[in-house]
Design brief:
Order of helices and strands: HHHHHHHHHHHHHHHHHHHHHHHEE
Mean pLDDT: 76
Shape: globular
Distance between the termini: 80 Å
Largest sheet: 2 strands, antiparallel
């Protein structure tokens, strides 16, 4: 069967199941199996599909996702949100519509802590919306502010979206992705603040005023333990002290200790948090597993290559192709959740982006930015539903107020797409990008050790020598695997100590 027919079957069955209100993960699996029938036998389909679904979640990096979800739920119920709102008011209390500005800054801070847009929207909205309502804020405006700024948590690290992308993209550095998301995430928050300021100025919304020095010190000290979480987790991951998964575990432990110290967490509430986190994690991990099966079927059928050829045939202009990719991703984001969208479309669009000279880091940021906008657009925008549920107003009312935010975010998306420095500037300054190489490609194997080992005078041959000598303590033979070839210790050239020069 031709590639076109297989692609039509795959996406048609997937769309029909979605419109029939079938869960998206089940829709992905069924459509993948139906499409695979045209090329594989039933025995091959069942064996290979189950194998791919298992290998899709069999990753140490993905273990960080349920841990970050648990940390976000603990923060949501542990009194951290209220302290962050009070801290945000210190910076924006003098701006018209100060409560709306505090909502945006609070979403940026809480999103950076929890890594979840839904958690940020529910925590900040539940905390600050009643106050906004009492002070006469338009419910649609207050809800739109919360919805538009909540997805900043998907870009400002730590975030599970970058972890999923790193796994699909072939092991892209998570620490580099985290650093690359800072400027786009902050720009998203600043763009929302500009729109909120203009609306508040037009409708003469009040200001909260400036806090006294003693009050500001008190609020800062209360919020400082929560803010230290960003420094500990991100600093540890970027500094190479621990991995993203280990950082997620530390994040959970830290949030749990804070919640106990704040006396805002009981045994019953903690059990509810565990159950909720387990349910959410199960849904996301099953989505990843199902998307791995679809990715295999698409790759086996040659669909990504066909789509790439079709897109490249539209135009030879780099900017036109990138614009077309953004349009497709924006449309996809309206109907698909962020996790399956990343898993399905990364193998399709990443090779195209790299062929145009875009690094895999910048493409990852562009992809997540598109999904952030999809997170707040109907009919599948989870943040949209959460925000409207908190304020108890209809989606139609909020959508009208969200249009200016959509316009600003669209301009920022184009800026992130066409200006690499917005994504690669921070990682480049921190030395996380390879020098003298294309950021999307690994460095050449020149036999040098990692930078932190070079500083203490250890090179790769020395590391190999150490690895060989350790097993010989017990007089056991030892072999190394290098490039899928079995190498014995006597085949490895050991470093020689330089001899001193003899005087003539």
């Amino acid at each position: 069967m031709s590639i076109g027919v297989t692609a039509i079957i795959l996406f048609a069955v997937f769309a029909l199941l979605l419109f029939a209100s079938c869960p998206i993960s089940v829709s992905i699996v069924i459509s993948s199996i139906v499409a695979a029938i045209s090329s594989l036998s039933w025995d091959q389909i069942t064996f290979i599909t189950m194998q791919k679904m298992n290998s899709g979640v069999e990753s140490f990096s993905l273990l960080a996702i349920p841990l970050f979800i648990l940390a976000g739920n603990i923060m949501n119920n542990g009194g951290i949100a209220r302290r962050l709102v009070n801290f945000a008011k210190l910076f924006v209390g003098w701006i018209p519509g100060s409560l709306a500005q505090a909502n945006i800054v609070g979403n940026m801070l809480f999103g950076a802590l929890s890594g979840s847009s839904v958690a940020a929207a529910s925590a900040m909205g539940g905390c600050i919306y009643p106050i906004q309502k009492d002070e006469g804020y338009d419910p649609a405006f207050a809800t739109a502010v919360n919805i538009a700024s909540a997805p900043t948590g998907l870009l400002i690290p730590p975030t599970s979206a970058f972890i999923v992308y790193s796994t699909v993209a072939g092991g892209v550095s998570i620490s580099t992705l985290f650093m690359a998301g800072y400027i786009p995430g902050i720009l998203m928050g600043l763009g929302s603040m500009v729109v909120a300021f203009l609306y508040a100025k037009k409708h003469n919304y009040p200001v909260s005023g400036r806090a006294s020095a003693s009050e500001a010190l008190k609020v800062t000290l209360e919020a400082l333990p929560s803010l230290l979480l960003i420094v500990i987790v991100i600093g540890g991951i970027v500094g190479g002290i621990f991995t993203a998964t280990e950082g997620a575990g530390i994040c959970v432990l830290y949030c749990l200790i804070l919640s106990v110290c704040y006396k805002s967490l009981t045994v019953q509430s903690f059990m509810k948090i565990l159950v909720s986190s387990a349910c959410t994690s199960g849904i996301i991990l099953f989505l990843i597993s199902a998307s791995s099966a679809m990715s295999f079927v698409m790759a086996y059928s040659g669909i990504p290559a066909a789509i790439s050829s079709a897109i490249m045939s539209v135009s030879t202009n780099k900017y036109v192709i990138l614009l077309l990719m953004n349009i497709i991703l924006l449309i996809v984001g309206m109907f698909m959740d962020i996790t399956p969208a990343i898993l399905i479309f990364t193998p399709i669009f990443l090779p195209i982006a790299e062929s145009l000279g875009m690094s895999n880091i910048q493409f990852g940021v562009m992809l997540i930015f598109n999904m952030c906008m999809g997170n707040i657009t109907p009919p599948v925008g989870s943040v949209l539903f959460v925000g409207c549920g908190i304020s108890k107003i209809s989606i139609e009312e909020v959508t009208k107020t969200l249009l200016p935010y959509f316009a600003v975010l669209l301009l920022l998306l184009l800026a992130v797409t066409y200006i690499p420095a917005l994504s690669l500037g921070v990682p480049s300054m921190m030395g996380l990008l390879y020098k003298g190489a294309v950021p999307s490609s690994p460095p050449a194997d020149d036999g040098t050790a990692p930078l932190f080992l070079q500083h203490i005078g250890i090179d790769s041959p020395a590391l190999i020598f150490l690895c060989i000598q350790l097993p010989h303590i017990r007089n056991k033979p030892f072999y190394l695997f290098a490039e899928n070839k079995l190498i014995s210790p006597d085949q490895i050239q050991m470093p020689c100590r330089p001899q001193p020069r003899q005087r003539k």
